[in-house]
Amino acid sequence: MNFQRSEEQQMIIENLRKFLDNEIEPAFREHGEGFIPREKMQGWVQALTEFGMTKAPFGEEWGGFGMDWLTHLMVFEEVAYTSLDIAIPGFINACGAELLRRTASEEIQQKYIPDILACNKFIAIGISEPDVGSDVAAVKTRAVLEGDHWVINGEKTWITNGEYADVFICTCLTGEGELTHILVDREEHGFETVGIPKMALNGQSTSQVFLSDVRVPVSNTIGERGQGLKNTLKIFEYARCHMSMWGVGVARRAMDESIKYSQERKQHGKLIAGHQLIADKIATMATKIDAARLLTYRAIDMVERGARADKECAMAKWFGTEIAVTAARDAVEIHGGNGVTKEFIVERLAREAIVSPIPDGTTEIQKLIISRALTGEQAFR
Ligand SMILES: Cc1cc2nc3c(=O)[nH]c(=O)nc-3n(C[C@H](O)[C@H](O)[C@H](O)COP(=O)(O)OP(=O)(O)OC[C@H]3O[C@@H](n4cnc5c(N)ncnc54)[C@H](O)[C@@H]3O)c2cc1C
C-alpha cells in the first residue's frame, strides 16, 4: 500500500495548482458568484481537462489519458479548493461518460464520450423530481413506447449541468417498477431547462428539466431496459467519491484560510494561532481532512478494482461532506466578525459547505447504506 502520489501525479498537481492560482482564481474572483455563461465555463473546464480533469480515467481511444480515477479525483480536489463552481461540470461529465462507457451502445459511446471528456459537450444526469428525492426508486417521469420511439413526459429537478447540457440521461419509468435510462439529445430531441437560484454555487448550473412529449429513438436506451436503478447505484459510487473530495476541497481551503488569518491576527497580546482553542480547531480540521481523503482513496480504489464498495463510498461521502460543514463553520469563527463579511472567502465556503451533504444521497441516506451493509437490515422500505 503506497500513500504517496506518483511522480506523474505530483507533477500534474503542482502544475495545476500554479494554473489555478495564477489564472482561474483571479478570473473567478473577477466574475463573482453569478451564473457563469456556457462559453466562459467551457473555456475554463476545457483548460482543466489538459490536467486530467475528466480525461484521466478514460482510455486514449476516447481521447482520455489512460490514467485512473484517483488522479482525476486529486485534480478535482484541487479545482474544488479554488472554485467548486468550476469543478462541478467536470465531475458530472466524468460520471456521465462513465455511465455511457459502462452501459451504452457502441454507437452512442462513439458519438458522445470523446466530446464529453473534452468538455465540448456537457452531460447531465437526472433522477430527482419534485416528489422524488432520497427515494430514487419512486421516479414518475414516464417513457412510453410508440413504435421505435420512446415518448417521454415528466419533470426533473436539481439537475447539475442542466442549463449547459447538450445531453441528458433521463431516468424514466418504463413499466411497473421498471426504471430505464434514456439519452435525450437537446438538439435532436429537445428539452427545456430553468435554473434554480440557491444559497451558493450559483456560478454553475442546477436546474429543472421539463420533458413534454419528447420523442427519442429506442436506440438511445442506455443499458438494458429496467436496469436504470442498478446502473444509477453504480454511478452513485463514483459520484459519492467526488462529493467527498468536494468536501475535502472546501475544508482544506477553509483550513488554509484559517491558518493564514490566525498567523496574522493578534488578540490578548499574541497571535490567535497561539491560543489553544484555535489550535484545536486547526488540528481537528487537518486530521479530518486527511481522514476524509483516505476514506475516499480507499473507496475509489475498490470501485476501480470492481469490488463492492457501496458501504465505503457512503462512508467517504458522509464524512467528506460533513467535515466541510464543520471546517467552514470553524473557519468563520476563527475569522471572527470578518468571517461573515464578503471580504473573506470563508463566508462563501460556509454557504457552499452547507450544500455539500445533500446531492447524491444525504448524510442520513449514507448512514442507512452503511448500517444496512453491517446489519443486513433494510432501512429504506
Ligand atoms: C446542488 C444540488 C445538486 C444536485 N444535483 C442532482 C443531479 O445532478 N441529478 C439528480 O438527479 N439530483 C440532483 N440533486 C438532488 C439530490 O440528489 C437530492 O436533493 C437528494 O437526494 C435529497 O432529496 P430531496 O432534496 O428530495 O430530499 P428528501 O428526500 O425529501 O429528504 C428530506 C430530508 O429527509 C431525510 N430522509 C429522507 N428519507 C429518509 C429516510 N429513509 N431515513 C432518514 N431520513 C430520510 C433526508 O436525509 C433529508 O434530510 C442535487 C441536489 C442539490 C442540492
What does this protein look like?
With 381 residues, the protein is an alpha+beta fold. The chain has three domains: 7-117, Butyryl-Coa Dehydrogenase, subunit A, domain 1 (Orthogonal Bundle); 123-226, Butyryl-CoA Dehydrogenase, subunit A, domain 2; 229-375, Up-down Bundle (Butyryl-CoA Dehydrogenase, subunit A, domain 3). The chain is built from ten helices and ten strands. The chain has helices at 7-31, 38-49, 69-82, 84-103, 106-117, 228-262, 276-304, 310-334, 346-355, 363-375, and strands at residues 123-126, 142-146, 149-160, 167-175, 178-185, 192-195, 206-217, 221-222, 266-267, 270-271. A four-stranded mixed beta sheet has the order 1-4-5-8, with helices on one face. The chain has a four-stranded antiparallel beta sheet with strand order 2-3-7-6, with helices on one face. The protein has a two-stranded antiparallel sheet with strand order 9-10. A hairpin with a 2-residue loop joins strand 9 (266-267) and strand 10. Helix 6 (228-262) runs antiparallel to helix 9 (346-355) and helix 8 (310-334) packs antiparallel against helix 9 (346-355). The two termini are 39 Å apart. Bound molecules: flavin-adenine dinucleotide. Flavin-adenine dinucleotide is lined by residues 125-128, 133-134, 158-160, 206, 355, 358-362, 364-365, 368, 380.
Low-confidence stretches at least 5 residues in length (pLDDT < 50)? none
Task: Just give the CATH class of the largest domain.
Answer: Mainly Alpha
Q: What is the strand content?
A: 15-25%
Distance between the termini: 39 Å
Number of domains: 3
**Mean of all residue-level pLDDT scores:** 97
- Structure class: alpha+beta
CATH-defined fold name of the largest domain: Butyryl-CoA Dehydrogenase, subunit A, domain 3
Q: What is the radius of gyration?
A: 21 Å
Element order: H for helix, E for strand: HHHHHEEEEEEEEHEEHHHH
Query: Which word captures the global form?
Result: globular
**Fourth-level CATH superfamily of the largest domain:** Butyryl-CoA Dehydrogenase, subunit A, domain 3
Assigned CATH architecture of the largest domain: Up-down Bundle
